[in-house]
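User: Second chain of the day. Same drill as before.
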Amino acid sequence: MVDVLTIVIGISFALIAAFSFNIAVILQKKGLTEAPEIKFEEGMGSIIKSFKILFQNKAWLSGFILGVLGWFPYIIAVGMVSVLVVSPLVSVGLVVFVIAAKKLLDERVSMFELVAIFILIVAPMLIALAEISNVSIDLVSFVIPFLSFLVVFISISLTCFMISKKKRGTPLEGLFLTLTGAILYSLGTVFTNIFTQALYNAGVNPIFFWEILFGIIWFESHLWVFIGFWGMLFFNVSSIIFYQVGFQKGKAILMFPIFNTITLIIPIIVGLFVFNQTFINYYFFTIALILILVATLILSKFQADVESMKGANTS
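Assistant: Same format as last time:
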């Protein structure tokens, strides 16, 4: 049983991360609106060139740095109270996000969109009230379900990317690119959970970074420290390209709640089917999932409508 002080400290770090992540997205969106469009169809050279321009944009760079810094309190919070407690708390940061999006980006929000966003703020709280159990990593039985999970969700992300290519130039392109980035980012979150739990199991002091970078040498728990760290790094970095393009092509105030929802749901699925976690109150969990599905569909529909109107106005 986690003591009260640990829970309070963990929640505090989670809220700091929530503030960092949500403001970071607003600053990045501001920079994206000032930068040339990132185009996948022009190849990797064009993408690299676009990101070089972004790194010269003060707003985007500030958001990027703030997002990176936010991972430090996030990792600490995950280590103290688990990712399935931290993720709902980070989602509460949507309140900050909506306010900042209206003020800094001057994005208009309809009543339907506000209702959907409110739902996505309430749903994570219900998931927290569902009281999920602690993470359980068995280094033997864990491997097969974990690899199966990776194959399934990497396949889904690739499918979303292929659909975005077919929908190029349509209102749905940004949505499917955001979904691609969200899934990859979620995989990074899962590896973050593995990394923090493996650090604890192996008794590795983060100061001894060589045990993290080259933990494969020691095997057992150290092996998962190694896999967790590099998996966290790879998927988080690779996700940036996709969700940044998705944010650029759509309204941040619509795209980010969808992104946020996906990055909440996937770690929960992994917790249930890979980490053998359970909920004490499945009613709260079921209600939360239904609310999240409805809200996501609302925001997806309005995103398509908004982009259709933009296309009609420019033609």
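The chain has one domain: 4-314.

User: Great, on to the next one.
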